[in-house]
């Protein structure tokens, strides 16, 4: 092996020095420092592997090399990538994101989103009904719930008592007097033709109330005896949960 000892290698012309040729291997022994201050060293792709770098931290598929020669997590702490879907997945199901602020402010934390289906049903004291359609969907953003529903009866066997719609996907807020109005898009084929059938939710249950004859003096619940085998009701509601 030949050995050349020099203090400086300078180009004969220009500013480029080439060491070796294509296919050559140039070895820098352990303990030798390559000082590139005010200079640029260009290496071909794949010529240096990360395990040869004297960086601190853990080198693996989830980290990257920072400018200060340390390995850091590639992403947000406590979050990971959901495979090929490229969705962020928190380690804790209660984790969320603060919106509209640059500090951790509880009232600005969005920590829940969900959408799905639920099964609405008419509820009353006695008797029964069968359904041609019994459909409900919901969307939950934080503590706000929006539901849609459609109930269509195809058989009725002497239903009686006060009628409500049950099965809301989340319990309404426990705050006293926290009623929320609901909207009925169509009511069809009741035994009585009500012009003021309404709907609302109240606290601490999974029920939509169905009041009729609402006046300044009060109201009464929809009688179950008004349900028949062609009754159709659909609507939606927005309410809060705790």
Summarize the structure.
With 242 residues, the chain is mainly beta. 0% of the residues lie in helices and 38% in strands.
Protein architecture, described:
The protein has 242 residues and is mostly beta strands. It folds into 2 domains: 55-111, no CATH class; 116-240. Helices cover 0% and strands 38% of the residues. It is built from no helices and 17 strands. The protein has strands spanning 63-65, 71-73, 79-81, 88-90, 97-98, 109-110, 113-117, 121-123, 126-141, 144-160, 164-166, 180-188, 199-201, 207-209, 211-215, 218-221, 232-240. The strands form 6 sheets. A 6-stranded antiparallel sheet has the order 7-9-10-17-12-13, with no helix packed on it. A 3-stranded antiparallel sheet has the order 8-11-14, with no helix packed on it. It has a two-stranded antiparallel sheet with strand order 1-2. A hairpin with a 6-residue loop joins strand 3 (79-81) and strand 4 (88-90). The mean pLDDT is 86.
């Amino acid at each position: 092996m030949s050995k050349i000892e020099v203090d400086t290698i300078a180009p004969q012309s220009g500013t480029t020095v080439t060491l070796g040729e294509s296919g050559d291997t140039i070895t820098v022994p352990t303990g030798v420092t390559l000082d590139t201050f005010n200079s640029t060293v260009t290496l071909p792709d794949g010529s240096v592997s990360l395990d040869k770098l004297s960086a601190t931290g853990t080198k693996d598929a989830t980290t990257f090399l920072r400018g200060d020669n340390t390995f850091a997590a590639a992403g947000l702490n406590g979050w990971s990538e959901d495979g090929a879907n490229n969705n962020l997945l928190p380690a804790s199901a209660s984790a969320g994101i603060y919106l509209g602020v640059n500090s951790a402010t509880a009232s600005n934390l969005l920590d829940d989103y969900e959408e799905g289906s639920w099964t609405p049903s008419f509820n009353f004291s006695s008797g029964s009904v069968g359904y041609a359609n019994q459909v409900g969907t919901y969307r939950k953003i934080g503590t706000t719930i929006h539901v849609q529903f459609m109930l269509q009866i195809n058989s009725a066997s002497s239903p009686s008592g006060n009628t409500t719609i049950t099965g809301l996907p989340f319990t309404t807020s426990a705050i006293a007097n926290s009623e929320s109005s609901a909207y009925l898009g169509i009511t069809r084929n009741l035994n009585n033709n009500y012009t003021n059938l309404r709907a609302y939710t109240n606290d601490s249950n999974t029920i939509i109330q169905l009041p009729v004859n609402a006046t300044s003096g009060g109201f009464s619940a929809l009688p179950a005896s008004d349900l028949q085998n062609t009754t159709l009701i659909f609507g939606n509601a927005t309410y809060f949960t705790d």
